[in-house]
């Protein structure tokens, strides 16, 4: 399972998987899945077992998908209505990509906060050790040395 294959071999395998998926749809008389009036690339990629970027970057896969869209059409049976067909095709950023970006930003902020808290804990432990060893209180550090005054 962990064997490496060349980019060309991986591309050919992805095209083979896509062809098998599209053939299955055609054999079953099914259309391509739709999302916001266009082919749901994520659903196609998931069904084929590869990343959706393959359908954007692999020219053969991209062409096969376009041909299949013309030949098979789009599945409009899952709540899609005719009013959506009349909307102009406006490319909007994918909601999942926006959510991922937002979560990455929150994660970075939390990591920075955790690092700051670890540093503060290290300083507090150092002060506690000094107090235990000497039996004396330690005066608070001036704010110019990094203490927040809290």
Automatic annotation (TrEMBL):
Origin superkingdom: Bacteria
Region Disordered: start-end pairs: 73-98
Key words, A-Z: Coiled coil
Coiled coil start-end: 100-127
Record's protein name: Transposase
Record organism: Methylobacterium oryzae
